[in-house]
Automatic annotation (TrEMBL):
Protein name (database record): Sulfatase N-terminal domain-containing protein
Provenance organism: Halorubrum pallidum
Domain of life (superkingdom): Archaea
Organism classification: Archaea, Methanobacteriati, Methanobacteriota, Stenosarchaea group, Halobacteria
Amino acid sequence: MIVHFMQPHMPYLGSKADELRRRVEDEGLVVRSRDPKKIEKYDTDEANVVSGLDGGFREGYISESELRQIYIENLEIVLEHVEELLKEIDGKVVITSDHGEHLGENGLAGHFKYKYTEELRIVPWLVIDNIRL
């Protein structure tokens, strides 16, 4: 069985991510979104748009510490679901990812196509022997 979770991944979920989006927007910026009201805003003024909370970090509106907090919050969200899934299956389980993530190292945030760094190439690999007695 292969189960794929998007989180932790942009767009970040959770209360801290929502708080940071509001703060960035209070600065007059729009965090890129699929919300039609926001799309109208950045269709008319592309200069006020950041790509996401990673863009808010790159533009200096979000600290490295905050970027890490929202990543951890997203990891906790998905691990709650993984924990529920583990209750239903037996045997060895591997939790991994398709890539790593920049969380402020060298001023970088997120992940980029064709950017090969250690942070992106090292992926988690957690083995759980989920044997129920």
